[in-house]
Amino acid sequence: MSDIHIRETASTSSSTPRVKPSPKTSAIPVPFSYTPSDDGTDENLLILLHGLGDTHVPFTKLGRQLKLPQTAILALRAPEQVPFLYEDSFQWYTSFDDLGELIERPNPTPALDLLTKVLKHLVEDCSWPPHRIHFFGFAQGGSVAAEFGIRWWKDHLQAQRADPSLAKTGGAFGSVVSISGPLLSYPTLSTLNPTPVLVVHNPPPAETALPAGAISAYRKAYENVVEKTSRAPGMPASKEGWEPIMQFWSRHLGRRQVEGLYEVMSGAASIP
């Protein structure tokens, strides 16, 4: 995993509490794990979405290992059991047909509806502003994160048309990182989503390469898309693999200046 170093930041003010209330199991209809920031300041929330056939448990461990400054972690488990399997193996949406074949054009609506409920709870009950909420998703989880960013933005644009006083950026999240997760839709937006996006993927001819046109599709939905390729399949597992992600977060994670708190930068202090 990559290294980081820290530097003192300029003073900033915030109307949200420094320590956020923990999410409630009664409000989130799937198993999850929430970890407050190690340094006692919950300025950012990183939501982790696992891939097809996994659970939130490994991503809970990952989030704790990252130890991102001023960043709480929420790892969610997908809502549906993968059919034909008897182990803990979950999917964000129906992914297989009755013959066990992958569905070519799946419908992510159930996952987006779930995340809408989760975000409503986080924003209204836990004091998280959307621009301080960041997503990290692997494969199917990356697709869901990116698709949800589009839905949230569309809902905001619709609300803004009804109430022009709403800020343009009110529908943007802090960032989205998608590891090998293409969009599932064909976005047509009159106003692009300003949420910063990082897409990390394996180039062809890798079996896990994104479909042709996948990055172009992202750029039809988001105005700030960074593309990085990786030769290593699966989740990042080395310093080299994590470096572009840590650099991306160093630019987009929020910072609240209080005594003893600093800005995350790529560089020198080792992360386990």
Note down, in words, how this protein is organized.
This protein has 272 residues and is of the alpha/beta class. It has a single domain (3-270), classed as Rossmann fold (3-Layer(aba) Sandwich), CATH 3.40.50.1820. It has helices at residues 57-66, 109-124, 140-162, 214-219, 239-252, and strands at residues 3-7, 32-35, 44-49, 71-76, 80-81, 90-91, 133-138, 175-179, 197-201, 225-229, 263-266, 269-270. The protein has a seven-stranded mixed beta sheet, sandwiched between helices. Helix 3 (140-162) links the parallel strand 7 (133-138) and strand 8. Helix 2 packs across helix 3 (140-162). It is globular and about 50 Å long. The N and C termini lie close together (7 Å).
* CATH topology (level 3) name: Rossmann fold
By CATH's scheme, which homologous superfamily applies?
Alpha/Beta hydrolase fold, catalytic domain
Q: Estimate percent helicity.
A: 25-40%
Structural class: alpha/beta
Which strand order does the major sheet show? 2-4-3-7-8-9-10
The parts where pLDDT drops under 50 for at least 5 residues are 1-13, 265-272
Rg for CA atoms = 18 Å
- Along the chain, the helix and strand elements come as EEEHEEEHEHEEHEHEE
Protein name: Phospholipase/carboxylesterase/thioesterase domain-containing protein
Domain Phospholipase/carboxylesterase/thioesterase: 40-147
Family: Belongs to the AB hydrolase superfamily. AB hydrolase 2 family.
GO molecular function: carboxylic ester hydrolase activity; palmitoyl-(protein) hydrolase activity
Describe the SSE topology.
Blueprint: E1 3-7, E2 32-35, E3 44-49, H1 57-66, E4 71-76, E5 80-81, E6 90-91, H2 109-124, E7 133-138, H3 140-162, E8 175-179, E9 197-201, H4 214-219, E10 225-229, H5 239-252, E11 263-266, E12 269-270
Helix pairs in contact: 2-3
